[in-house]
Amino acid sequence: MARIDFTPYRRSTVGFDHLFDLLESSVRNTGDNYPPFNIEKRGEDEFRITLALAGFRAGDIDITAQQNLLTITGRKQDDAKPEGSEMLHVGIANRGFERRFELADHVRVSNADLADGMLVIDLVREVPEAMKPKKIAINGQQSSLSIVDSSESDESDRDAA
């Protein structure tokens, strides 16, 4: 697959970073679609990625989480075929693969399970306490800081409008 590098254009333009990100992701996504996968949101801060990996064993798969990138690699180990047998039709993909997922900040892999040809990877977003929004009192009305619930802040934004 040919890779296009937009770095020289990024240096000479200002404010078009989003456009170049879209172009790079479209070039990256035109490749192989194997193995098929689903991404599911299971709660406010819980996600699940499911990959269809028929014929792969746990030892054939390597899952690596590094900063904001989750990489799943599969290398099928050759199974010994009985002497004198030959394949008449090959419809089950036995090729190796590498699938990458970009993760948002503070998202970590909590569990991975392979059963019935389906690899299930559970993800959890854990925002540190220091990064959560806090309500600050004006003129010392309240001396302590309290964490703002995201649903409360959304309602107050709508009320203000």
TrEMBL record:
<dbReference type="Pfam" id="PF00011">
    <property type="entry name" value="HSP20"/>
</dbReference>
<comment type="similarity">
    <text>Belongs to the small heat shock protein (HSP20) family.</text>
</comment>
<dbReference type="InterPro" id="IPR002068">
    <property type="entry name" value="A-crystallin/Hsp20_dom"/>
</dbReference>
<feature type="region of interest" description="Disordered">
    <location>
        <begin position="142"/>
        <end position="161"/>
    </location>
</feature>
<dbReference type="InterPro" id="IPR008978">
    <property type="entry name" value="HSP20-like_chaperone"/>
</dbReference>
<dbReference type="InterPro" id="IPR037913">
    <property type="entry name" value="ACD_IbpA/B"/>
</dbReference>
<feature type="domain" description="SHSP">
    <location>
        <begin position="28"/>
        <end position="141"/>
    </location>
</feature>
<feature type="compositionally biased region" description="Acidic residues">
    <location>
        <begin position="151"/>
        <end position="161"/>
    </location>
</feature>
<protein>
    <submittedName>
        <fullName>Heat-shock protein</fullName>
    </submittedName>
</protein>
<keyword id="KW-0346">Stress response</keyword>
